Amino acid sequence: MDRFIITGGTPLKGTVRIAGAKNATLPIMAASLLCPGTCQINEVPDLRDVRVMCEILQLMGAQVERGKGCCRIDARNVAACEVPENLMREMRSSIFIMGALLGRLGKVKVSYPGGCAIGPRPIDLHLKGLAALGAKITEKHGYVVAEGKELRGSDVHLDFPSVGATENIMMAAVCARGVTFIRNAAKEPEVVDLQNFLNKMGAKIRGAGTDTIKIEGVTDLYPSNHSVIPDRIEAGTFMVAAAMTQGDVYLENVIAEHTEPVAAKLREAGAEVETVGEGIHVTARRLQAVDIKTLPYPGYPTDMQPQTMAMLSIAEGTSVVIENIFVNRFKHVDELRRMGAQIKIEGRAAVIHGVERLSGACVEASDLRAGVALVLAGLVADGQTVVDHVYHIDRGYEGLEEKLKKLGAQIRRVQEAR
Ligand code: UD1
């Protein structure tokens, strides 16, 4: 296992290129199973989660070829419909396989994904949606089986605009007979990217990005070529890193509209955030406290909450952060406290009294975004910070330490001592 050793105190300066979005890549890779041909996906980030998804697709019978930044998936011989439990546990996103395999083979068996560090993550909305399309769902011995050779279009109303449920239902409905409506659908940009990929394959989907998605079932799908959108969470992470280190950073390959919820808060905190060409320029002096409420897109992303909390730990004044999406997403708080942050938790709310400086300490990444938040804290802390369990961070950030080093940060990766 690897750890990061960071010496804080250097403002980040320079240019960083943002990779393709992890959360768009994973469902798009799964969706390629729908088409009995070869799809090419570009701007694929080199991440642990992407490698796990490749492994799952191969086990299902697809041939997967990785090139630099791209991935070719030949799904002609896909025949297996059971995802082994160890891979389901490795990555929650393996759940996307359900909609795709059900659509392609009419049957899928996956183990029930357990809880995770950010709280319980049920799949009831996924299953209700698939059942509404006519799939027979059986849950036994920790496994879920969905079967339905002849899915039919339906009207699905989600109790909550779940990103994963919206994407799974979209995939299953592409080849269903008749028209499906998903109401109260998730509006995240990654849902729009999935729609665009599926439509290039010949699907007939309209409305992604709004709360009603209409899917007219088609009988045939064709191979397609697609470039994944830039990662708005990686971009947001670098924007926050630039602002909290009082740096001067230009981020290339960003869709400014997607990062606007973060940009608006950074401006409110006193940073300068400007769209320049195909990128974003961030500069800042000491930031002021701001309040944050996480919400579905276009609200403030829950995936930016831990990083933002690290930033607010050293802002001037008192901030309140309310986490509305995942009940247990405050695992980073104890670790930030070890570094001198003054944070109190009361239910879904965190109250942060900004301190002048954090101090370097040994801390542990409990999940992907909590882990990167500790790296950001290390960048501004006095002395040395050691972040253990970096494998969580590797799930979602391509070459994080190289990118930070290029911006002047003092960070290195070493093997964790046993
Ligand atoms: C996706 C993102 C994740 C992000 C999250 C919220 C991917 C691969 N992951 O996760 O990074 O943090 O959106 O923006 O895209 N829920 C239910 N029942 C369900 C499904 C969800 O109750 O069947 C609840 C969850 O427990 C959670 C909320 O809905 O409280 C949001 O979850 P959801 O939007 O589904 O997140 P994911 O798709 O898992």
Gist of the model:
Helices cover 32% and strands 26% of the residues. With 418 residues, the chain is of the alpha/beta class. α1 packs parallel to α2 (48-59) and α8 packs parallel to α10.
Describe it:
This protein is α/β, with parallel strands linked by helices. It has 2 domains: 2-19 and 230-415, Enolpyruvate transferase domain (UDP-n-acetylglucosamine1-carboxyvinyl-transferase, Chain), CATH 3.65.10; 22-227, Enolpyruvate transferase domain (UDP-n-acetylglucosamine1-carboxyvinyl-transferase, Chain). It is 32% helix and 26% strand. It is built from 14 helices and 25 strands. The strands form 7 sheets. Strands 22-24-1-25 form a 4-stranded mixed β-sheet, with helices on one face. A hairpin with a 5-residue loop joins β11 and β12 (212-216). The longest helix has 13 residues, at 232-244. 52% of the residues are buried. The mean pLDDT is 95. Uridine-diphosphate-N-acetylglucosamine (UD1) binds at residues 23, 26, 93, 121-126, 160, 162-165, 186, 190, 302-303, 325-326.
Properties at a glance:
single chain, 418 residues, alpha/beta, UDP-n-acetylglucosamine1-carboxyvinyl-transferase, Chain, 2 domains, four-stranded mixed sheet, 14 helices, 32% helix, elongated, binds uridine-diphosphate-N-acetylglucosamine
